[in-house]
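Q: Got a minute? One more chain.
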Amino acid sequence: MMHTHSSLVVLLLATIQCIHACLLHGIDPAAVDGYDPWSVHMETREVPTPPKTKTALVNVRVFDGYQIREPSTVIIDGDVISADETNIDSVIDGFGRILMPGLIDSHCHPQNITDLEKLTSYGVTTAFNMACFNYPLCHFLSKQVGLASFFTAGIPA
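A: Always. Here it is, folded:
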């Protein structure tokens, strides 16, 4: 009998910890006033096209994941990083500031395109949604060009 009681306590504590970790997962979405899991709020937006110009970022200190390197030049040719320093259209002086890779948000819940645009504006290039209650919306957000790449899990267990 004691073993069963301690197992229930451990289960209860684990459940509380999970709910505390992400309150959205602990809420029954059907209980939220006005929630419709199949309504899709898919705003349209103009899809940006990658620039066709070649830009040199000069005097930038690149963070490579391990260290901040000495000031150097990074060439962006359209939508790729290049080593070709010919035919540069524009030069941007980084004034010795740090250039770093895009950020990954490993636990978020964007509810619309505006949320995904906001993540992108903060430097997030990859977003992991930890629960999808609206599959059409999640599919729509995962297909956006020019915004953070969006990956999603299903409904939490």
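A: The mean pLDDT is 80.
Q: Perfect, thanks.
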